[in-house]
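Handout, section B. The chain below has 186 residues.
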Amino acid sequence: GASRAFAVADHQVAHVYVRNQHDVDRVEALLEEVSGIDRVFNRKKQTAIGIDHERSGDLVVLAEPGCWFTYYFWMDDARAPDYARTVDIHRKPGYDPVELFLDSGIRFPKAHIAKRLMQKKFGFRYLMDVIGLDATVVRGSHGRLADHGREETDSPVFVCSSRAIEADAVAVTGVKKQLLQLQFGV
């Protein structure tokens, strides 16, 4: 689109793509000043921690503990896409923890849900539009890289019953290879 830089956000991680490579340093400096952002990884820093991939953003941004990035790309809630107010993991561009909460603006949410279920029963088209757009209702977070020194206790776990792909550690970028090896022996 029209943006010089845009982010693809997935909870506590965002990939930032910059149209003109001459702007990357400037965008990095701007992001480092934003409240709620813990770290900004340029390509060199991505390589150093093993998250460099050809489709990674020019910058990868990590939220501070307790903070997260929404995928909301609109400025006016009236212009939000239909899927924003529903549980729709396939159309949303990232994880949306707001889906865990009913819209507090719906006066009788159970009645609203019952109405939607009746519409479904009678064959009408409907949206189960019961999710709010207030991201502040989310209090917890997940998805951060482990802090230095806490990798053993705070990192993701890769568990498998097959010894064919047994390893003490698997790089984030190596998970695909491990799964292909397990499934197809490749």
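Note. The longest strand covers residues 5-10. Compare this with the example in section A.
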